[in-house]
Design brief:
By secondary structure, the chain is mostly helical. The chain contains three helices and no strands.
């Protein structure tokens, strides 16, 4: 079974809590954002490991997943 995305999780939360409070909605949104960040960083890390294992390039840029996320999404 495929892992549930943050968007899918948030949509399910909205459908299960149609009359939830604004504060609960904000908490759910923040949880979904944290899930999304984790999923992006995990995918980057996995891809980075696979890329590094397959080829050896002298100018290969090896940044960690946190730095990648911050440089790509926190502009």
């Amino acid at each position: 079974m495929a892992q549930q995305t943050a968007v899918e999780w948030l949509w399910r939360w909205i459908m299960d809590n149609p009359f939830g409070s604004f504060d609960d909605g904000v908490k759910a949104y923040n949880q979904a954002k944290a899930m999304e960040k984790h999923q992006i960083m995990s995918a980057y890390d996995l891809g980075n490991q696979n890329q590094h294992d397959k080829i050896c390039i002298s100018n290969y840029v090896n940044i960690d997943e946190e730095q990648y996320y911050n440089e790509t999404y926190n502009k």
